[in-house]
Every structure is written in structure tokens, then in C-alpha cells.
Amino acid sequence: MQPVNVPPRRDPAPSRLAYRAHRIWLRPMVRRFVKKGLPLLAVLGLVGWWFAQDANREMLSDKYAAIRSDIENRPEFRVNLMAIDGASDSISADIREIVPLDFPVSSFALDLEGIRDRIAELDAVRDVDVRIRSGGVLQIEITERVPAAVWRVGRDLELLDGQGHRVAVLASRLERPDLPLLAGAGAQDAVPEALALLQAASPVKARIRGLVRIGERRWDLILDRNQRIMLPENGAVSALEQAMALEQAQDVMARDISVLDMRIPSRPTVRMTPQAVENMRQIKADRHGADR
What we know:
Elements: H1 16-25, H2 28-51, H3 54-72, E1 78-79, E2 81-85, H4 89-98, E3 105-106, H5 112-120, E4 125-133, E5 137-144, E6 147-153, E7 156-161, E8 166-170, E9 181-183, H6 191-200, E10 208-214, E11 218-223, E12 228-230, H7 236-250, E13 257-261, E14 269-272, H8 274-291
Helix pairs in contact: 6-7
């Protein structure tokens, strides 16, 4: 009998490669990557390929622009007019000039912060609030600076508020005769002190012509009859109050003096007018002749 060729039995043990592959598959990170990472990479690859086509990007951009335009131009987002409150007619005209808007306009097209910044640059505007009110109204609330003094700088006249900020330019002093006059370089930086001095000089208020800043460090109070009260760099208000006490007690400024020097408050001095000096010389000469 011929022997039957029996195929060798297959070894049930896995090959070394299969064993290693199985061990790698058992790792959680590898399994998560295959189940989730590979599909995600495939989707991202398809999306990237789609966006790489110029026609697809242009189509998507046009679609986005059309949707956005439809939303922005809806009636509830439309601004139909501008309302300005708290501003004088001239300031309102200036605001409408620097904020030229063609109504109606979409609220999405309005740069409220930019509008606020442009209006805040106006000299006469101290504070501004810009918002869109219900009913399609661009509401602008203005707080104007209040003029407190007229500042003469060279040949120009400017209105200043109580903090020294410029409010407007004056063509003539006659436009605001009710406000005190300041002069001299640096006067705009010391307006609060100037106003305090004018308050302290109330006993001679009717005679005040103005305040002059000297050397950007101190004030001279100018009265009619070309009289001047020279004040110190520090403690000007108290020095002027002392001068006013002398005025009320002895009518100092009613005499023939040109300057009351209070730069050293503990030792006030006076300067006579040229006519008074001449009169005194004449009196002395007459007395000298009489003594002979």
C-alpha cells in the first residue's frame, strides 16, 4: 500500500508580524486614532480639497455676502435719521458736517466708536454719547464745555472753560464782554487759579480789566486807571485777599498809586504814579523854599 501524503498541520501560533500588529491594535491610542482620527483626517482632506478650488471659494463668498446683505438690510436694522441733543445750533451744524451720513443706512455699517471719537475732537464738546435708539434713530447726546474766560494770545481771542480747555475762537472781545479777560503765555494752564483770584477780588470787581500771566508762573491783576496788583507765584489767592483787606480798610487803590506789589505778602509795597511823584517833589521843593 502506497503511503498517503498528509499535509503538515498548521501551527496555530500567530506569526511574529501578526503578533506585533495585534499588540499595537490593543493600544487605546491606536484604536482611537483609527476609529476617529482617520475619518476626521479624511473629512479635513476633502474639505481642504474643496476649498482649494477657486470656483468653490468664490461661490461660498458670494453666498455669504448675499446672506449678510439680506440680514443687514432688514427694516429692523435700518437707521433712518440722526438726533442731536444738548448741543447748540452751531455745534449741531459742526457735527452734521463731520458725520455726513446718507439715510437710511444699516446699523451694521455705522462705526459708533469712530463717530464718537470724531465728535469728541470738537473743542466745544466736553462729553459725547452715541447710540442707536429704537425706531431707527442715531442718538447723539452732547455735553458742551461752558465758557469761563476769554484768553488773549497775541492778537487772537479764545474762549476757555473752567479747566482751561479751548471752547471756541472769538472774532471780537465784544462778543463776550461778560467773561473775564486773561492774557499772557501759559494763562490757559492756570484758569482755575485765575477764577479763584477773580472771586477774591470781588471788592474791586467793577474796576477789574483782566489778569495777566507773567513768566508763565504768576499773575498780575489789572484794574482801570492803569493800576496793577502784583501777586506772588505761590499763595496768590491769600495775597490778593490781604490786598483786598487793605483796600477795604484804607482805600489803597483809590489813591494815586500805579502798582501794589504783593509778591512778598508780609511786606506789601506801592509804586506811585508819575504825577503823584511829581506832586510830591513840588511839595518838597516848596517846603524847602519856605524854610529858607
